[in-house]
Amino acid sequence: MMLFLARRAATLGVTVLLASFLVFLIPYVTPGDPVRKIIRSRVAGEVIDDSVLQGLTAQLGLQDPLVVQYLRWLGRLAGGDMGLSYASRTPVVEQVVPALVVTLSLVVLTLGTAAAVSVVLGIVAALQEGRPADRVITTVTQAFIAMPEYWLAPLLVLVFALNLSLLPSAGWEGPASAVLPVTVLALRPISYFTSAVREGMLDALGAEHVVAARARGLSHFHTVRKHVIPNGLLPLTTLVAVWFAGLLGGSVIVEVVFAIPGMGRLLYDAVLNSDIPLAQGGVVVVVGLAVVLTTAADLIHGLLNPRIRGHHA
Amino acid sequence: MRDRPVFVRAATGILVLVVVAVAASPWIAPSSPAEQDLAARLLPPGSAHWLGTDHLGRDTLSRLLDGGRFSLVIASLATLLTGVIGTGIGVLSARRRGWLDEVLTRTNDVLLALPEMVVALFLVAVLGPGFLSLVLALTVTGWTPFARLARALAYDVSARGFVESARVLGCSTTFIVFRHILPHLAGPLLGQAALRFGQFLITVGALSYLGLGVQPPQSDWGSMLAAAQPYAARAPVGILAPGLVVFTVALCVTFLGQRLARMSSTRMVLNPASSGAVADA
What we know:
Chain A: Residues 100-295 form the ABC transmembrane type-1 domain. The structure holds two protein chains of two kinds. By secondary structure, chain A is mostly helical. Chain A is built from 16 helices and no strands. Chain B contains twelve helices and no strands. Chain B has helices at 5-23, 25-28, 60-96, 98-113, 116-127, 131-142, 144-158, 161-168, 173-209, 221-228, 237-270, 277-280. The radius of gyration of chain B is 22 Å and the shape is elongated. The model of chain B is unreliable at 268-281 (pLDDT under 50). The interface between A and B is large, with 51 and 49 residues.
């Protein structure tokens, strides 16, 4: 177990460092003078003439080797300083934190909805294996995988916001504005979750202790509730953690269509405006969180299922 | 029921129809995809324009046929590239084992943790939008599922009797890989390729929808949808049609891929020598 933990921790550290180094390189690989770009992200003034530029280059250490600059940048990042946004001339942190809060609530709502729906659908499908209910649930949820969000979202807006005026078409204020985005975003996780719950339930239904419980004369309801469901839902835990990581950066389309001020929207705007410090800050936060969550998912998987620890080479 | 040949034939038929129609679009399209007719803006479907016209009076059906080329070519190219790279890396990991396997598997884990869309946004930001950045953005993270699957399967196949026999008989590693291992991987990997093609098609559309994919005057299904959205209330066909095509193609491909994966995995499961391949997939 210690080896397993150490390995995971090492992977996590390397990933975050690698990602942060790539992000640090953005000003150097995009067209234009990197020094000017970096100074623009660190100094509040708009116009900089050449004499000031030289002074600032020395002051900010931009003539130092790349590695030294990277370590300095990393140090500032660790202290929560991500520089100034080109577009708004305000600290990037002040934009990233509220956006992260919005996206986190969107993702939590989405995964909560998806898990609740999938548990019901998956249990029904497994208990009705091979019958019409199972076929309908399996076929329909599998079709969700092929649903493009950029199609479903405008269609739902057209029907529920423009034609029926039931729900707001955009924004992030109050529960009503969350209904459409959460619906669109939940379909793909529902597809994967339902299939995982169904498979897990079928495995558990065939397990020896379940057969034994039946043989002891326990009722069908009691067996399912006490012995099948707890084991059948195990695979879902890891899957939810993995999807949490995926949705943090995967909600771009939904946030853009519904004008939700979250991380996806922030990254999209940063790319459109070539706002390098904003893009750097956003990518570092999203990737860092995603890596931590994926590792957490692995750990949960390892804790709940001791068999994989050694063999997962 | 999902496995009835009727459904397989229907899915295959639809795919062939779409591919042929898109490939033949210069000859069969009712009008030029770029031809504007401002007097005939946002027309509903009718005899002159089967699927109506867009906000510049361009024929929606012609644009649909023309735009498919970009989406289908990028998705195919990305599938091919990621499939070849991923399979190569997976088989290499499984055959060499040791430190190389460790490094490749860890790299895979690292890339798997990066959100695909963020990587794509990042690369498009650095390289600028266009054909090559799109293919690259999809390939950088896209090979990982293939490598996982190929590694797990190659591990299992390598443990079987005929591989050991071939080795004892003095066959070279190259010969064993191409003659004995890869043929056993073909089924599941093709299934995976079909599934990935569907996802790539959706992602290409998503990036174009965001304006980061194909650039005007060219267009594809995603950018058509984005352009039609402001006029959705007046001309709903403009958003209905391109999305429906993406959904239908992705659905057919996914269905065929799942069937392929299931067919080949039953064979693996029935074989006592294979253990974790299916679970790892």
